Structures are given as C-alpha cells and as structure tokens.
Amino acid sequence: MPKLTAENYYSHETDWEYMSFSLYKDFKKCEAATLAKLKEDWHPTSSPTALLVGNYIHSYFESPEAHQAWLDRSETGTKTNRELMMTKPTKTNPNGHLRAEFKLADKMIKTLEDDEWFNFVYMPGKKEVIVTGKIGGHEWKGKVDSLVLDKGYFCDLKTVDDIHKKHWNDENKLYTNFIEDRGYAMQAAIYQELIKQTFGKQCQPYLFAVSKQTPPDKGAFDFQGDTKFLMQEAIDEIKENQERYWQIMNGEVAPKHCGKCEYCRLTKELSGFQHVTDIEVD
Fold it and tell me: Contact, 215 vs 226, CB < 8 A?
C-alpha cells in the first residue's frame, strides 16, 4: 500500500489502492468510463478551466508558498499554471493578459478574504490534510481543505455557478440545492469517518461556497438536523455498492456502460434495433 503524499494523492497509482469520493462518484456515473480512465486507456476532453479556477482559489487560501508553487507548476509538462491563466500574446500585448475566468476568481478570493466569519472559521485550520481509513472493509482516502482538530471541526471550500440555482433530482423527482445535487453530504460523511480513524477525534463538518457570479455570492453551511440522516444514508450506500466497484477494478466483473457519456458515445457499436418507446430521455 503506497504512502499518500501531496505529490501522489491524485495519481492513478493510488486510485487503484484507495477509493475516494470523486472515484466513487465517477463509478456511479459510468463504470466503463471510470475503468478506462483508471487504466489510462481514455482521457476525458473536458475543459480544464473550471479545475484550474478551483485549484487557484484553494491554493491561495492554503498558504502564500502553496499558491506560488501552484502558479509555477506545470500539470502537463509544457505550460505552467500561471501561463495557462493568460491569454495568447498579441502584437499589442506580447505578454497576454489575465483571462476573464481568473479575473473573476480574484473577485471570488476577495469576497472570502474580506469576510470576518470565513477568516474566523476557515483560516485557522491546517490545510489540505490527507486522511485515510477503512469504510466497509476497504481502504479510502480524502484530502480535507481545512482541519481545526483542536476545536473539533473541518471545512470544505466549494466554487459553484450559483448557490441558489435549483438542480433536478431524477431519482426523487424534485428540485434540490447544489450540496445535495453534488453529493457533498456523502463527502462530509466520508471525511468525518476518515478523520476519526486518522486522528481519533469526531469532527463536525462545515462547507463554505463562493459563486462564479459578478459580484460573487458566498455562503456558510452546516450539516446539522436532517442532513445527519443523509450522511448516514451515504455511508450505508457506500457499504452496499462499493464491493462491485472494487470487483471491477480487480477484473472480477465487467463494467456496465451508461450509454450516454462521452466515453460510451465514443465506443458505442450498434448491434440491433431499439423500440422507439424505449428511448431514454433526460
């Protein structure tokens, strides 16, 4: 079992050994695509901008040193993150200028930086803390944005398009908020359990969100009340479903194709006819 570090945490090598919230979510969306990505047989073509913006903001609140290191880092072996943030050079502007997404990211940073509650709750914590443990007999990993162990809580920081945007839940046939839509109650439950196993302390989860609007909106959220039941349901769901995902990774069972994602569209082969009335619609 490889020791997790900041350098290898996001590597596929450790993904084969440890389940994570993001990997579990990927398997729920499409087993075949997730396995292909793990085996590096296929790479999604999604734009990296949203990920860059999120990492830019997270590294800023981690520490000045971490932020500078992130700016100077090259994720692809070619351009640094700092260079990716700039527009292409022109005759009138040979150095380019900061892209609009990162001008907005600076505003998102400022709205949090100027907030007393955010500074009081989020900033004292130790940042990007790696935690590990077992859930349902299998190894899991997590990386906590801000852990205040002595006061018994931890925080996650999320960037969202709009905090108040409604999201359709097809399973329950109703609209819900971004926290429920993205499964953040599950993430909070996972991290709470891994922190307990790593440090021997039960910690309360909190979530800060900042929106990609002009001006940015912000919010601070707890997981009290009915959300505690959602967290327990999430752990129960993991214990019920994860065995199949480990079997897929071990080559014991074949992965299912969702039939709709980028990978499935790319690899789809027709083998017969489908009834018109059987077409799935989103």
Answer: no
